[in-house]
Task: structure prediction
Amino acid sequence: MTSSTTSSPSVALESRAGRRCHNVLNPLHSAHYFSPDVNRELSGLGITHRSAVNFAVRAAALGAVGPGTVTAAFYNYKYELVAAHVPQIWQTASPEDVLAARLRGVDTTLRRLLGEELVASPEMAEAAGLALRATEACSRGARPLYAAHADLPVPEEPHLAYWHAATLLREHRGDGHLTALLGAELDGLEALVSHTATGKGTRPKWVFSTRGWNQEEWDAAADRLRARGLLDGEGELTEDGVALRRDVEAETDRLDRAPYEHLGAAGIERLTELGTLFVGKAMQAGAFPADLLGKR
Result:
């Protein structure tokens, strides 16, 4: 009993530390989904629609897969939107060409957002080494997006190696998060609605324009959550809803703890410090739309 009582707080502390580290690594990866530089590179391959660009750059590591695979791996996108662009994108450009174009776009994006001095700094090289060390403990089982990206070569330049490692850590956590959502019996749209209700998720207008859902479908998902006692009449999370979202994040932390345990407390602290520096600079440079997050 004593052993169990003393070990639980330690695990919880490590989980929160890993989540905090992820929260400053992920945005620097995610910035390329909103980057005009990546759009320009994909346009050069003949892929111009915003959704097609998104599906191409994130799914290319999986190979020339069909809409079912992309929908399953992405989880919260409407199948019909995916099918409107996949597999046609692979008839326009090969996954290999898309991956090369993505990396060129990421290179330009990071240089623009962070500046040449920070890109070439010792801190960037240090962060790349720490992030790559964390990825050594990631696991491929039941993690398709992580496993696919883990097969890609690590770029030589430190800022691209850091971005690559951030991508691996993001997809590793994301694949585990889907397992947690399934365990909570939240489908893709219900996951979006409940996350948005926390105030930390994507605004509905962005969900509609990027995920393919509409207001009627959003309202139907909200009704399903109300029937479970997770949302109230105003669309706010109930006490049970807050608890469910908290449990989902805690389970995600548990499934994602290996890379951060491998990195160790000092490594996590330093990587979080460096990641905070980089993402702060990127946010100041306008990496994301100002109205991306929120409840309404």
